[in-house]
Specification:
The protein has 505 residues and is α/β, with parallel strands linked by helices. The chain contains 16 helices and 18 strands. It has helices spanning 16-21, 52-59, 82-88, 109-119, 202-216, 233-245, 263-280, 291-297, 315-320, 325-332, 381-396, 401-408, 431-438, 445-459, 463-474, 477-480, and strands spanning 2-11, 25-35, 41-45, 67-72, 75-76, 92-95, 127-131, 137-141, 155-161, 164-171, 181-188, 191-198, 251-255, 283-288, 300-305, 308-314, 416-418, 424-426. The strands form five sheets. The chain has a six-stranded mixed beta sheet, with helices on both faces.
Length: 505
């Protein structure tokens, strides 16, 4: 599967969110490129609300993408009509996060698994004859033999005439026994005629398929008549897995399949998914936020933040050598079972920005512990982070200088502030003292003068001018230019690594 420029935006104009919070476009998934290779498990990780589930649903076309293309086994899914897409969905399925809400409470386990079989008119059959010695074989039989096969294994039934093997019938099936097949052979002038009849109805075959699937996922066939509320969480998730497997897919999106389960049950479901992948050659897109689970089951991992893929690498490489600061913060949050081992957790300041109005440039810059200062200024990272936070508050107009003055007992010193352009402004309540009250880090030189100048402008109600003064001095490349994922073995969308030539001034 290949996704290129995958984008999904939701409009709030017509919904209740628009009435409550105003109109706007929620950028849930924004220009994502993603490849999932046959037979692998690709993990997709990130904080809640970053767009992981929407990405999975958009890939399967369960949610129509706003833009971009999805290529699956040679077909562009976006270009398929409804009928073609329905047929294609036999090859791609989804396991949902909450097994209780994803199962119809009015349907039994058996009906739940039978539904996709009925929708796709399965099982079907594909019978072929391999003939040796130049003989011609004509296959005739019931109408049910004219479809395509969905079963996975092959069993050969040898056909013998006058004790001389002239060919073999290949009938790939798991729900038929030799006793269910009636084969008649007759010799004619132009060769041999093979007549095949099956003595079981499609309903019987579906029942046998349901029994088989329940066994595959570790459920007793006697539970087929039970309802979802009569099952445990782990049993319900097994039913969801059996439903996804019913049409014999090649690709499954696993949307946090174990996050709603107890830890002991999680291990059972993860082991089941691994066993099924090995047995049936499945390919998984595994969406999760539990990094220990991802490390166990995934071959590669893609890290998502605010609708963008920020890093992707092999599992071992990503866990041992993370490149993106957000990935480092995620990995630092993994609990360490050894109480004697010290682990330094990276705490991110602030909350995730709104997907309605994401930051310019790098979407992670408002929380990044390694944001890049302009090369022309001398400032340490902690101080620069404080400056960035101060600038954000200025843009939001959320600084109350009067309250800060009262709390800090700022005196009315009437001090003169020398600005970086050598002009002076008069400060009624000393901006220099306010700098010390607002900032924990000790700002010096032009950095301090610029902040004091901005505070003086804010005190005069000149918010826009204060924003411009701060931007001129402190604007980062992380604000101006969105980083991109490079085509390399371990790409990271971060200006700290291998980005096109840009102005870092």
């Amino acid at each position: 599967m290949s996704a290129r420029g995958l984008t999904k935006h939701f409009s709030r104009a017509d919904g209740i969110l628009g009435k409550l919070f105003g109109e706007g476009t929620v950028k849930a998934v924004d220009d994502v490129d993603l490849d999932v290779y046959e037979g692998e498990t690709l993990g997709l990780v990130g904080e809640s609300g970053c767009g992981k589930s929407t990405t999975g649903r958009s890939i399967l076309q369960l949610t129509e993408p706003t833009d971009g293309t999805v290529l699956f086994t040679g077909d562009v899914l976006n270009d398929l009509n409804r009928s073609e897409l329905r047929e294609k969905r036999q090859d791609m399925q989804m396991i949902f996060q909450d097994p209780l809400s994803s199962l119809d409470p009015r349907q039994t386990v058996g009906r739940t698994i039978a539904e996709p079989l009925e929708i796709h008119d399965q099982p079907e059959f594909d019978v072929s004859a391999n003939v040796f010695g130049g003989k011609d074989v004509e296959l005739t039989g019931t109408e049910s033999l004219l479809g395509e096969l969905v079963e996975r294994e092959e069993s050969d039934i040898a056909v013998t005439i006058r004790d001389q093997a002239v060919g073999s019938l290949e009938l790939r099936t798991e729900v038929l026994s030799k006793e269910d097949i009636d084969i008649r052979i007759s010799e004619r002038d132009r060769g041999l005629t093979l007549s095949i009849e099956i003595d079981r109805s499609k309903r019987d075959l579906r029942d046998a398929r349901i029994t088989e699937l329940l066994g595959e996922v570790g459920l007793d066939p006697t539970q087929r008549d039970r309802y979802p509320h009569e099952l445990s969480g782990g049993q319900r998730q097994r039913v969801g897995i059996a439903r996804a497997l019913a049409v014999d897919p090649d690709f499954i999106v696993c949307d946090e399949p174990v996050s709603a389960l107890d830890v002991s049950v999680q291990a059972q479901i993860i082991n089941l998914l691994e066993d099924l992948q090995q047995e049936f050659g499945l390919t998984y897109l595994f969406i999760a936020h539990d990094l220990s689970v991802v490390r166990h089951i995934c071959d590669r991992v893609a890290v998502m933040y605010l609708g963008d893929i920020v890093e992707i690498a092999g599992t071992d490489e990503l866990f041992s050598d993370p490149k993106h600061p957000y990935t480092e913060a995620l990995l630092s949050a993994i609990p360490v079972p050894d109480p004697t081992r010290e682990s330094e957790r990276i705490l991110l300041e602030g909350g995730v920005p709104s997907p309605v109005d994401p930051p310019s440039g790098c979407s992670f810059r408002t929380r990044c512990p390694s944001v890049i200062p302009p090369e022309s200024i001398d400032i340490n990272q902690d101080a620069y982070r404080e400056v960035m936070h101060f600038r954000q508050r200025v843009e939001e107009k959320s600084i109350d200088l009067e309250s800060i003055q009262e709390e800090g007992f700022v005196t009315d010193g009437g001090a003169n502030i020398e600005t970086p352009d050598s002009s002076t402004v008069t400060d009624d309540a000393s901006a220099q003292q306010l700098v010390d009250l607002i900032f924990d880090e000790n700002l010096t030189g032009e950095n301090r003068m610029t902040i004091a100048w901005a505070i003086d402008l804010i005190d005069d109600g000149k918010w826009r001018e204060a924003q411009d003064v701060l931007r001129q001095r402190f604007e980062s490349v992380c604000e101006r230019t969105p980083p991109v994922l490079q085509k390399e073995p371990h790409p990271a969308a971060c200006h700290l690594y291998n980005q096109p030539d840009i102005d870092r001034r």
